[in-house]
Structure formats: C-alpha cells, structure tokens
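Lecture 7 notes: from sequence to structure.

We start with a single chain of 145 residues. Read the sequence below before looking at the structure.
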Amino acid sequence: MKNPGRVRGMLALAAVTLWLAAAGGTAKAQVDAQGIGPGGPGVFINCIATEVHPNAQPGTTLLLFNAQNRGDSQRFASLLARADGSYVQVQSRNGRWVSAPVVRLQNCSGRGLLLFPNGAMRLRDYDPITVKFGPSGPGYGPGPR
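Now the structure, written as tokens:
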C-alpha cells in the first residue's frame, strides 16, 4: 500500500459520514460564544490531535486524538469508553471551547475521534488540545446511535 495513513483516513471518513447520515445530521458540534469551558464538573485530559482531516463534503472536520501523557493513558481509555457516542468539550491552544461528539475507535487502542464543523477550530496534526469529559455544558448527552 502506498499510503496507509490516507487509506485509514478515508475509511474513517466513510464511517463517520454513514454515522452522520444515520443520525440525521444531529451530530454537529455546538459552539458556545460565551465559552463553555471549565465550568461545572468534569475530568480534564491533555491530549494531542494526532490527525486532523477537514473535509469539504459534508463540511466536517475529523480529529483523531489520544492522551498526551503516558500516565493518563488508562484514565483516558476509561473516560473515552464511557463517553463513546456522547459529547465532550474540547479546547484548542487559542483557548476556545467547542462541544463535539466523540467516538472511541475500537481497533485503535487509546484513540478517539472527534467531529465538528469545518472552521469551528483551527487545528493541525500534533497540536495540543484539552478534552473535558463530564456531564455538564451545552451539547452534552447521548449522541446519535
């Protein structure tokens, strides 16, 4: 295979597109202009955006991420498994918070996939992000299934 990373990305895009179609488009990230950040209960994990894939159609950015610190790996995996299909809050380096659906990738141990509209966050591969797992804030709750 010439570019296995691109093939994985295309497979992830296909899976997410089907997921979004089945959800009737309800999986769009919700952005709060006042900043939805750290208020309320939750668990914060420093993460790395290992791959960022903006796609023109359906206008969604896919973000593959994992825990930044090895010491957080077990806790991250547990939080990710519980949050699978729901919403988390994500903060980029510029301080902006976005609420986005998260998917646990079963065949990629310790990695998650975030979905949000193009332009909601400006990220590149290997940018640091903070992910808040928890029950509060706009956009939280069960995601589409």
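The chain has one domain: 4-133. Keep this in mind for problem set 3.
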